[in-house]
Every structure is written in C-alpha cells, then in structure tokens.
C-alpha cells in the first residue's frame, strides 16, 4: 500500500530517511546458489556516491554497505564470493555525514519544486532533515539491489549500460552503437563521447557558477536480453521499466525505442522489417527498442529517461512556510547543479531489477519445464 | 506473474482474446454503496468502439457490456442506478464480428511491428486470429473498468479528460486551459481545437489513401485531484500513471508536466514558485504536472502519451514466417490508419483506474481516521 | 484488498452472487502449452453439484461451465483437448434455478450462524437472495480452478484425494493407506470405507428427519508431491493449505499430520525417524504430514478439515431482524443437513490450487535453471 | 514468491539467519502520526527471549531491538514516544551469543523432525548454524512487528491476550472468561490458572529430566474487535489468522471457536442464537469464535493453536547424513523441552499483525468515507 517494495519475483524493499540511523533494503527472491561478489556491489555503490564525480555535491559519505543476512560467506570458497542462501538479503548503509543544523531552517519551509509540502499533505508530518525519505539518498539502496540483480543477469549474458545523453541544451548526437560504452565510467559526466562530455561539463560548471541547476537525460541499453521477457498486458516489459524509471527522484519522462518521435512517424517508416542474418531472424532496425507487444524480441533494449533540474539552487525563489505564507528560499548548503551523472548507476540498477524480475517471472510461462519426460 | 491484473486497492483483471468467445474483466475493490450508472458505462465504451469515429476501422461490433456480478440492481431506486455490493464486479463483452478467414494467412506469418513473433517466443503458441490477446480489443475491458472508477472519482469532484494533441506532424499548439475540453467528444479526431482537428483529419485521410498509418500523441488532464495521492518511493503517482499508459498498446513514451522538456531547462526557470490565491497556497506555474515527490499537490495533473503508427498497413513490408524465412506482408483487411482518436477513452480509463486506486490506498496514510476521540 | 483472489503464481479470482446472473472465475498463471481436458473439468464440477449425492439439497442446477478465454480449442488435436494459451482462462457458470420468492423473507432477517449480519456490518448492504456471495455456491468456481490446477499436477505425477472421515459422532477409524481411495466417488457420503459410510448415511438421514444438521470432517491426501515445495517462513506449504481450507464456507479448523494430537505427545515419539528404503531416504513414520519446516519432504501430504453443521435448519431458532429485534427463524426451503460430502471436491480443488501455485513458485528457488553451461 | 512478507495493508518483511550478523524486519503501512512507545516494544520482545521463563533454553541473548527508520523521535514530545512517519519502520536485532562450534556437527546431519533436509532439498544449501533461517529465532522479528501493530490496535480498544491451554496431557479446563488473563505474564508457563500452571511446570521439568520434549497448545482471545473485519471469500479473518499461526515454527493445527469439536455437533446446538442486551444485538453463545462468514461480528475472537514437541532432544534418534546414510542424533546443547510458553508472545504478535492489517484493509470497504457531503 505504501509502495516501498518493487518487483514480483525478484523484489526489493527499501527503507530509511536521509538523516536517520541508516538506510537500507531487503532483496527477496534472489535464487539460492547464486555467487555474489560483494566487492563489486560496493564498487557499484561507490559510483553513485556524492563525490564520485567532481561535478556533484561534495557531501562525503563513505557509504559502506553492510550485509546482514541471506548470504553464505563461503568458508574458503576459492573465488572469495558469497553464495545466496535463497533467503532475504538484508543490508544497511549507515548515515554519517549529518549536518542537521544546515536543515533546521527547512523545518517549517516549503521549497519550490520539492516534496516538502506534498509530504506534509499526505502524512501530516515529515522528517525535514535532508529531505528525509524523499531524498535521493534513498536510491543508494536501489543501487545495492541492482548490483545483486546484475550478477544474476551476468549468468545469462545480459549486460546493462546507461550513460548521459543530454545536459541542458547539450545533446549527445552519436548513436550508442558507434561508441565504446565501457568508457562511461571514465567520464566525469558519464557521457561516452569525449567532446560532448567536455561541453556538458562546461555547461554544468557555468550553471553552478550562476547558482542555478540544469536538467538532463540518461539513456540506457540492455544487451543480450533473451526474447520472451515481459508480460504482455499490464506488465509489459517497457511498462515496468517505465514505472521503475519514473519512480526515480526528479524523473519527468520515459520513452522506449522511437519514443515520442514515433508520434510524428508513418508506419511504413516506423515498422522494423524482419531480416535474416547469421544468428537467424532479426529486425533490420530497432525502433521498437527491443520490445514488441510488451515482450522482449532479443534485440537491444534501448530507452531514455528525462530528469528535471534539481530544485535546490542558490538563487532566491518564492517558497512558502507551513502556515501558507510566502517565504523566500535561498539554499546555502552543498547541492548538485545537475543530477544526471549520479543518476546513471540508479537507472542501471532499476533496469537490472526489472530485468531480473522478468527473467524469474518468465520461468513459468510455458508448461514444458514442469513436464516429466513423458509429458 | 502473468500481469493481467492492475491496481492494488482498486483492481482490475482483464481476460479474453480478440476472436474468442468474449473479452471481459473483474473489478475488485469498488467500495460498497457506490451508485453506478450503467448507461454511462456503456456510453463510455461506445466511445472506444470501432466505428465510433469516421476515422477508424469499420469493424462494427456492438460491444454491449453485460454485468454478471457485484451489483444490486436497485428495486425501484429512483435514479435507476445500480449499487456496488463491495464484491467483484464481473462483466463480459461478447465477440461477434468474426471474420476468421481474414486471419488464416496470419497463422504462420510474423508481421513487422506486431507482437506475433514475441508472443510465440514467450508462450510457444498464440491465438493468431485478430491478434488474439495482443489485440487492442482488450482495451475495451479497461474502458469498462475506468468508467466504474470514474464514478468513484465523481464523488470527490475529480474530472479526467484526455484529448489528441498530435497526429504525425500536426501539433495542437494551444494550452489546454484556453480550450473547452468538453468539446473533445464532438470532434471526430478527439481534438478540442477545431482548426487543428481539421488538419489532423486531413492528414489521417491522406495517410489512409496512401495505404499507410501515422502516429500521434494523447494528452490528459485530471482536475480536482486532492493533494496527498501517490506513494512517494516506488509507487509515485506519476510512476503508476506511466506504467498504466505504457501498458496500452502502441505506446512508446510518457511524460508528466514539463516532461522531456525539463531536460533542457534550468532550475530557476523550472521550479514552480509558490503563490497565495483565494484558495490558499498554490503554485504559480505547473511544470511539475500536479505531482511533487510522487505525491499530488492539488494542481491539475497533466501528462502526455506517445503512440507509434499502427503496424498494419496496406503497403508491402518485409515480414517473416514461423520458420524464419522472409515473407512479404500486405494487409488487406480493415485497419485504423491512426489509433489516437480511439485511444483517448483508453487513456482516460487507465488514468481513472490509477486515481481511484490511489484514492483508496491513501485512506490509510494517516492514523487519524482510525483514532477514537481520545486519540 | 477485498480478498477475491487466491494464489501467487497460479492465481484464481472468483466472482458472483448465488442468485445473480452468473458466478465464475479467472485463472491466471496456467503455463502455456498445458493440455486441458474440458470434459474432465465439467465432471469435477458435477461432483460438487447439488443433487450429486442423494444426501444433499435437491436444488437442481445443471452447472455447466462455459470457458470464455485463454484456451486454444485445438483444431483437430487428436486427443480433443484444449491447450492453454498462457493468458487468463475465464469461465462462467450461469445461475438458473432461481426461486427468489423463497428468499424474500430473508431480506430483513439475520439467521443464527449465518453471515447475514456481518455482511451488512461490513458493507452496509448485501444481496440476501440465497446468501448472495456468502453462499457455498461460490465454491463451484473454485472447483473449476482446482480442476485446471489438477491437470498441471498430473504432469508431475501428483495425485490429490479427499474423503469424509467424520460425520457427527461417526468416525472413520481405518488409516487411509489401508483403503482404496478411488472408491470415494462411488460412496454417496464420499467415505471410502463402506461400513462407516453406511453409518454416516444413517446419521445424516436421521438428522434430516429431525429438521436438524450435523458437522463433519474431510481428510485429504496428496501423493507424489516432490520435495521442496513451500516457502519456509510465512508461506509455509501447510500455512497456505490451512488458509485455503479455512477460506471454505463452514470450516472451523485445520490440522496437518499429527495436528492437535501433537500437543499431547513427546518428541521422542513424535519425531519421524529417517529410514532408508529402495527409493532412498524416507521417513519411517509421517507425523509431519509430509511437510517439515514448511517445505514438502516427498512423503504424502495429509491434513484434516473440520466443518461445522450447516446453520440453516428447519427447527425454530432465535434470530433477529435488521432493526435488532428478536425474530424466530424457521427454514422452509431445501437445505443440506450435512455439507461434508459436497465439500470433498472443494477441499481437493483448493489443495490442487495451493500445490500448483507452490510448484510454479518453486521454479525460481535455485539459480541453477537460469545458469548457462558456463555458470 | 519466497514468502518472507506477511500482510497486505499492514505488512511485515522479516530477514535473518539465527547465527548471521542480525535478524530484523521492515514494517510497511503503519499509519503516519501513530505514537509508538519503544520501551513497550522492547518489553514485548523480552517476553519471547530465551531465558524469559525458567522453563526455556538458557541461551542468553539480550535481544535489543534497534530502530533504523520510519520514526520521528519526538524532540521533547512530553510522553517520550516516537511518532510513525508513514515510511517503512526498519529494525534489527544483532545476534550475539554465537557458539558455532556447537553446530559444526550439524553441517552434514539431518535431524529427525527438523527442516535440515527439506531446506537442502529446496535451496541446495543452507546455513546450518543454529538452524539458520528455520530457527525460531526468526520469530523475534515478528514480535517487534506485532508490538507495533498492537499500539495501532490500542487506539481502537482492541486487546489481544494469548495463554498456554495445554502442555502434553495437562489441559486447562477453565473457560477464559472466568480467569484473570492479565495474570499470564506472572506465570512461568504462561497459564493463567495457578494450579494448572503448576502441573504443567511439573510435566515440563519431568520431560526435561528425561531428555525428551513435549507439545502443547496456545489459546488466544481478541477483545474489542469491531464488527466488519475480514474479507469474506479467500481472505476470511480466520483464514488469515490460521495462515499466520500455521506459519509459526512447530505449529500443526489451528481452530477457531468450536473448531474440530464442531464436526461432532448438530446445528441446533451449534448455532449462536441472537440475543439483545444493553449493548444491542449480541450472540448468546460464541461457538463462531467471533467470526461469521469470515467477518468479525463484534464478539470475542477465540482460537487455538497446536504445537508439536520440539524436535531436538537429548535422547538418541535415527537421523541421516547428507549422503543419505543413517546417522544417530543426540543433542548436547541447550534446548527447550517445550516451546509453548515462549510461543505465547509470538501467537499474540501474529494475531496483532492480522488484526491491524484487516483494520486498515477495511477502511475502503464502504464508499461512505470517500463521499463528499453531497454524495
């Protein structure tokens, strides 16, 4: 009812306020026997960390994930990995870098563009410190869950890579297939094209100097997804991907394949023709974005996510107080001028969770696996 | 697991293949005592019917909804309405206009852009007649469910209206607030601006004459939504709206408020400043689209949905057969050149279902209603 | 929320009031490709029908199940069976034998032991005709769902058989393993031991002659259940079986294996010792009832269900009216003096649904099936 | 799918192995604004603790619950209570008293009556230390969740009290209404009748001296439950209570009201006649156990739970090893000869969770609360 759980067969529940004792989560449904490299999970978490790129907020949280359950630690397993027990994998990340005094002024203030007021409207109270549970800090738990999901996807040869494709009016023009996506993590702005990245960085620095913020777009590609994932009516694969992305803080839009561009196209151009290549039947183009009728078709899954500019800026804005009176808001603390570089691992994490969930859900689509030899 | 159910507290399950005995659904969670005008439900269904506008396919199905359960028929209730019993409201719509011979050729054919092949890949078999369950005919059941939800929303003064805002390269330029949205149903193309509608219609007719199809966009406004709806982490109000829309056939994108445009904006421009008017605290602009932090803020909820052009066209296309060999596809039957006019009631229906669901879910957000007087 | 759906991976939603247009259900999650013998489903439904044994109510409903969706009818499939499409299997059973005039007196009456008053307390209104949705007629939909589930279990060699083990003070003393359970359907009272059956029938006839009713017990055995079914914490196999049974009308108790007898036993006697036989490791006894720690162990699953005597009797009773005033109740219509014979197929149906659900749920317990050869 | 979450509107997810880093849980759905006395929660947890009665295992875990999220700590709230934020309430209980060396022998051993083997059969591996997640230690998390639920029930005047009603062949013969149930916590064996308690204690001590164990029964009464709770078809109030109880370790049976005794009764005796008293319409007897047709009727809810004797005993038993070979098992560690005294708080906790869940679920049963004044 309160919507803190995501997924059906591979399921994550997250908890925690930005300035409470800890944030964390519980992953339920990870199949027993899966080998999990915990160092890799920590490394994925580090990519989302404030301070992971020079462009973000300097809030410096070590963000160490601590696993509490669900893992068998291996007793001399040669690869040093943990093994999933099939039971809930619970983890916490302690909150450390509290500066609650920075937030005291926010207790009775509604900042424009923030969830301050709607949270009060819904619950009658809120933890105002650092945004409480509405803080993007909550997404760290998703990154841990996504890193577990990814190790399940690895077994199937599924690889998920997101990257920044737009910051303000700077667009990445090159097609993803022409770039080396593995270069994403070398880029401070998480854009695989060096010259575009340079312009994005310049824009972000300019915006920061202005005391302002700027929006952007993250694109994501999933390769190696087998055909057949997605449930064709309400739980279409792209519907669940869309819900996952729209549930990330600051997201305002989602599109798959041709997306909003499809609205302007003719069918004769839009339809992906079938073609035969060495690997069998393929589609010659991929305007479907790898999903047809809600079900993956074996081509790359490609989608875009639009992020609004962060609401917190140094410039003065027309806010209000809890009594409904006008109140000027001028942020003084540390704030990201642009969230998209740090959103890249969150987009990947949610994509991994959706794909792992549908991979498991699909296990019962056909009667064959349950059939004895005489069936 | 198979994803044929939508919603948590207000929940619809749909069933049925396009050319099976019937399609239909079960609505569970409609509160007991709700008065339901069944004629209004049928009238909403009629708006989605093939033939409801001169622009669509001429397939002529009367599409009479038959209610099987969950209603008390009133015994002289003066307004002639039925009363919800609090039990599941099941309904069916018989399929009548079968021309299975038109579909015989499709049995072993994979049409470009269709779900023919992915369905086979997932389930190993499919009902090929008229697209089976992948047909947009399934959405008729959603319209019935939405019409029930809408009568629950009516009690709260919530009004949902969708309209066509784009067909191919013809865009509706006027803001919704400047138009009379009640004129939507008088427009064959479901666009409230007469001169834009005229150009849209001309484009659709030209596309039809070419044997081609064209995409479009539906926009939707929900007025009177109280603040507080939406669950702030995974089940954000716009995340559930997005999932609902992306689950409609042919949808490729969803955005709320400023949407993809937000990616190009600065925060100082994007943030909705607070303002006081006679009704109390408001936002001076509505780039948030009525949702902040995943929770409704009392402003209009505004979103857009992108539809691809229909896949079935008269022009020859490169398809394939079930054996993976090339096969030319040329549609001969009756087909919509543009789905967006008929998608308008489906968008409204899914929006109503999401809002009704969150209205009910929200009933337990605060302890107050459960508190006795001394609490 | 309203609880009309049962199951997670294999899921049934039922709908319908006893004297509405129809009752029915939707089965979601049946794997595609499963061959379904529809005549067998109808035959299972016939076993629950009023009039199926000479001991029940003479209400004579033909109870023909009509399938609306989810099945491919086979086009010359040599065995004449339908094939599951992987989509929702919807079905209805029309209500025919209405004698609403018999129920007019019940409109404002609360019968002792019935749900008349609690239904009003919960929903503010009810369909009083024949008990509305609180009627045991609803269980016919479960029998159809169970018959579908059973054909999935058949593929695994799982066989479920229930029987009457007690009527009033007449107890079946023989162990199930010593009897031919296939004789159950030849017995009017559904008891496999002829001499006990005779005494049960005599008791039921005597009770009927007295204008009274009597309670009883149904026992159930599931053979061939593979080890590993059941989720070990909240969704233990016997917890889900118990919930399924307690959800059947008139059920007051559930026990598995040693059941309430275990409360009086010592561990040295109760523990099932391990033993080796030709088939490998077994338990020498089966006080666990085939479930240990919530998970099936490969032994027979054995449980008992207690039914209260039917509330409706000819004898005068102290009821009340809707205004809270005393009102004598004397039933005049057709009523079962004992429900257990007709409850046998319902117990089996719910057991089949639980087992099919856990069979499918178990498909993702281990990572192995998802691992490629190099995993 | 893996079944580690319980409840619909008030929902608990538990995690943790007996000898992992911690056990704990996440409560989602607790309404915002609820005042929570954390000291009371700790006190309830203390009642379940090993060592809380002289009869149990001497394993001495301090079992301090640490809350991580979901609470506003009050800043000078005069009553010292925390306030629920409406967000997930996560908590952990660190595991401290590890003696893993005691469990080394169990690594390759299947103990009779335990979940050792079925866990391996399901997941392919298990954490053998102290039973891992199959240990009753997991129920400590339920007690915390139940203590939160109870403070929600307190607001409604609902009071839940369980007690031991049977140990081996010693039965509590007095009716609960004749005893002072508040005396339960003063009794080492959690039986409110002093002389019966004395005999129970003597039996447990004798069994312990024999190196054996003994079963028992816990009964539970919920007073002040308003009419209308429970969903009448699959999610009947007693079906959910039964599932909750059968999900507790070592439980073999559940009955409500007349329970298995109803199977032997006639309707004329069993039906609860209606009667008028000062409080309005009541039932003169309560064989229904407070639930009719799956819905609470306002009378006391009364049910019984049967526990088998603990499997671990000092006496030698016929076990097996992982290779399927016979292996004698003789427990040497610290073990409870009888679990029912320590099960009393667990039964209460699960009852509180079920009642809180249905209290919240019931909030949307009727349209009235959503109706504006003109509705």
How would you explain this protein's 3D organization?
- Four copies of one chain form a homotetramer.
- With 375 residues, chain A is of the alpha+beta class.
- The first copy, chain A, has a single domain (5-370), classed as Chorismate synthase AroC (Chorismate synthase, AroC fold).
- Helix content of chain A is 24%, strand content 23%.
- Chain A contains eight helices and 20 strands.
- Chain A has helices spanning 38-48, 100-103, 116-123, 139-154, 194-209, 237-246, 267-270, 340-361; strands at 5-6, 11-15, 22-28, 35-36, 65-67, 71-72, 82-84, 89-94, 109-110, 159-167, 170-171, 216-223, 251-256, 274-277, 280-283, 291-292, 295-296, 301-307, 317-321, 326-329.
- In chain A, strand 10 and strand 11 (170-171) form a beta hairpin.
- In chain A, helix 1 (38-48) packs across helix 4 (139-154), helix 1 packs across helix 8 and helix 4 (139-154) crosses helix 8.
- Chains in contact: A-B, A-C, A-D, B-C, B-D, C-D.
- Chains A and D meet through strand 2, strand 3, strand 6 and strand 8 of A and strand 2, strand 3, strand 6 and strand 8 of D.
- Strand 13 (251-256) of chain A pairs antiparallel with strand 13 of chain B.
């Amino acid at each position: 009812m309160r919507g803190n759980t995501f997924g059906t067969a591979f399921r994550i529940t997250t908890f925690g306020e930005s300035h409470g004792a800890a944030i964390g989560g519980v992953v339920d449904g990870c199949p027993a026997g899966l080998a999990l490299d915990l160092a890799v999970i920590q490394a994925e978490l580090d990519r989302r960390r404030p301070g992971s790129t020079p462009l973000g907020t300097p809030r410096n949280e070590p963000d160490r994930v601590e696993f509490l359950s669900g893992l068998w630690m291996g007793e001399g397993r040669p690869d040093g990995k943990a093994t999933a027990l099939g039971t809930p994998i619970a983890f916490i990340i302690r909150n450390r870098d509290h500066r609650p005094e920075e937030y005291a002024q926010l207790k009775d203030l509604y900042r424009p563009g923030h969830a301050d007021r709607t949270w009060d409207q819904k619950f009658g109270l809120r933890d105002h410190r650092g945004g409480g549970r509405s803080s993007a800090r909550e997404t760290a738990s998703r990154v841990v869950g996504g890193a577990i999901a990814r190790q399940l996807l690895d077994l199937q040869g599924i690889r998920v890579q997101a990257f920044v494709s737009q910051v303000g009016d700077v667009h990445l023009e090159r097609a993803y297939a022409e770039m080396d996506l593995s270069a994403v993590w070398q880029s401070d702005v998480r854009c695989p094209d060096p010259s575009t990245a340079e312009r994005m960085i310049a824009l972000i620095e300019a915006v920061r100097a202005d005391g302002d913020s700027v929006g952007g777009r993250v694109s994501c590609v999933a390769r190696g997804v087998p055909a057949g994932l997605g449930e064709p009516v309400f739980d279409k694969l792209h519907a669940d991907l869309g819900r996952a992305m729209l549930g990330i803080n600051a997201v305002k839009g989602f599109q798959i394949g041709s997306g909003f561009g499809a609205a302007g196209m003719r069918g004769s151009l839009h339809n992906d023709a079938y073609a035969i290549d060495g690997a069998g039947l393929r589609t010659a183009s991929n305007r479907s974005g790898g999903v047809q009728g809600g079900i993956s078709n074996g081509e790359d899954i490609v989608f875009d996510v639009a992020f609004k500019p962060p609401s917190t800026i140094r410039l003065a804005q027309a806010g209000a107080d809890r009594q409904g009176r006008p109140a000027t808001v001028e942020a003084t603390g540390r704030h990201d001028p642009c969230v998209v570089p740090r959103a890249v691992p969150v987009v990947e994490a949610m994509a991994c969770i959706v794909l792992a969930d549908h991979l498991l859900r699909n296990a019962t689509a056909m009667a064959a696996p349950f059939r004895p030899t005489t069936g």
